[in-house]
Structures are given as C-alpha cells and as structure tokens.
Design goal:
- This protein has five helices and no strands.
- The chain has a domain of 81 residues.
- By secondary structure, the protein is mostly helical.
Length: 130
C-alpha cells in the first residue's frame, strides 16, 4: 500500500478501496515487522548451528534449539527455505548395469527357433551385485 500512497493516493482512500480500516493496516504492518524480526533471529540461530555442523538439517536444528514455542515446524522450514537455508540433497549415482562387455556373453539359444505353443521357451536373467 505504501507504493500506492506514494503515487498520489492517500492511505485512507486505499484502505476504503480494499475494505479495511487504517487501524487494521497498521496492526498488520506491525505484526509483519515483529514476524520478520523473529525470522531474522531464527535465521541467525540456523547459521550459528551450521558453523558447528555444516550439514545440519532444518528439522534437527528446530528440535535441537526447541523452537516449538516460537513457531511451527512447517512454517520454520518454509521460511528458512525461502531464505536459502535448506540443504540441497546429495546427488548419488546409482549404477544399475555393468555393460562394459568384459564378462562372458552366452550365445543366443533361441534365435531361429520357431515357437508354436505356450511355455516352450523359459527365459531367465541373473543379476549379480558387486
């Protein structure tokens, strides 16, 4: 609303347009300032915890610092994520098949075989984990 009031409209006319009182506007503005101060102090707590343990997750910091009296865990994680304090997950490479070709390859025993009925050929696969 401050942007609108700087363009020549009064705060009273803007509040009337939106349908709230000036008192409600200032009350919301003061609550936002208090909330921002709280989030800034909580952000500093997270940064201090990360100095000690760099991969500490937001949820473990929340429980370690006992912040349940200040704000809920979902709001805490949401605000800290918006401030760029969420951890990015490690990318793990999962190797599913080793097809470099240095293992023995069996001949194809069913090539050229004419299959005329059910259950004439049974195919199996063996996967070896190393």
């Amino acid at each position: 609303m401050t942007r609108v009031s700087s363009k020549g409209h009064s705060l009273k006319s803007v509040c009337d347009l939106v349908g709230i009182s000036r008192q409600a506007y200032y009350k919301r503005k003061s609550k936002q300032a208090i909330r921002n101060d709280l989030y800034n102090s909580v952000e500093q707590v997270v940064i201090d915890n990360r100095k000690v343990k760099s991969r500490a997750g937001l949820r473990s910091i929340y429980h370690k610092e006992n912040m349940s009296t200040l704000l809920g865990i979902n709001k805490f994680e949401q605000q800290m994520s918006m401030r760029g304090l969420a951890l990015k997950p490690y990318k793990s490479y999962i190797k599913t098949t080793d097809s470099r070709g240095h293992y023995y390859k069996y001949d194809n025993l069913i090539s050229g075989l004419e299959i005329t009925e059910e259950n004439k050929v049974i195919v199996g696969d063996i996967l070896i984990f190393r």
